[in-house]
Amino acid sequence: MTENWDRIGIPAQPESPRQDGISATAVSRSFGQVHAVEHMDFHAPSGKVTALIGPNGAGKTTLLLMLASLLAPDSGTVTVDGLDPQHHRAEVRKRIGWMPDTLGVWESLTAREILTQIARFYRLPKAGIPQRVTEMLDRVRLSDLADQPARVLSRGQQQRLSLARALIHDPSVLLLDEPASGLDPGSRVELRVMLRQLAAEGKSIVVSSHVLSELDEIADAAVFVNRGKTVRHQTTDAAAASGRRYAISATDGAALAAKLTDLGLAFRVEDGRRPAVSLVLLNDDDAARLLRDLVLAGVGVSSFAPASGALEETYMNLEGERR
């Protein structure tokens, strides 16, 4: 649901043509002799959640800083709703909500004071700030801790405060660096629901995370980067349609292996606490068919489930290709 600006005391923004979220075209950035990002392309459309995936040192944080207009590219262009941060810095900053991987500021101030000060920085109307702050604290479940200094908050609570800080001015683009870090399982579910709601409101959301299993439930698409370059763009649906690895355990491992061999399926034995085999299946129909065949053959299947998410499967395949 779109925010009612009059209700929260923030004047409506003037209408301007939104040109499909946030984009980077052939951006490069070096630090001395280190080429952190080289001719990288990235696009996150409005109304969608786009995952940014890559190993440590791939250039993700440098790209995020350039998207947030906190770091200028050496070459290439960044646009936010069709605006270039180099020429429209103030307008672009109003449209971006930035959530770094740590809160990292004003730990002696209370959660309410931090959000109030951020609202002032964005020049929200003074009369509407208290209500807006209260709404944000409630949305991230920090109302009971509103008047506690940030330093006493747990890692997960600080993450929720950081998200509220990024949302205080109702940006059209949200950039999140490891937003699930430190969150308990319940809070992770709440984060997934909130991000999907924000996307439904028309926001462009970028999530950089190493927790790829979470991204399957959040993201509409993913951009994979490595060594400072874009290596693949893939929708989550396309990743799922490319197949994923399933892990299967049975009371009689030999009978399971024999049946899979009889069906002509290639599999591998997995080392772990429980004996299991794994194999790649193209879709849910293939998985359902195989499970039925195993049960009808009298194989005592004790577990049958995806061993990885769709985006994780793409990532591991890309890692294998790189090696």
Automatic annotation (TrEMBL):
Region of interest called Disordered, as start-end residue ranges on this chain: 1-21
Entry GO MF terms: ATP binding; ATP hydrolysis activity
InterPro entries with a match to the protein in the record: AAA+_ATPase, ABC_transporter-like_ATP-bd, P-loop_NTPase
Keyword terms, alphabetized: ATP-binding, Nucleotide-binding, Transport
Chain ranges of the ABC transporter domain: 22-252
CDD domains documented for this protein: ABC_DR_subfamily_A (cd03230)
Family: Belongs to the ABC transporter superfamily.
Name of the protein this chain belongs to: Multidrug ABC transporter ATP-binding protein
Organism expressing this protein natively: Pseudarthrobacter sulfonivorans
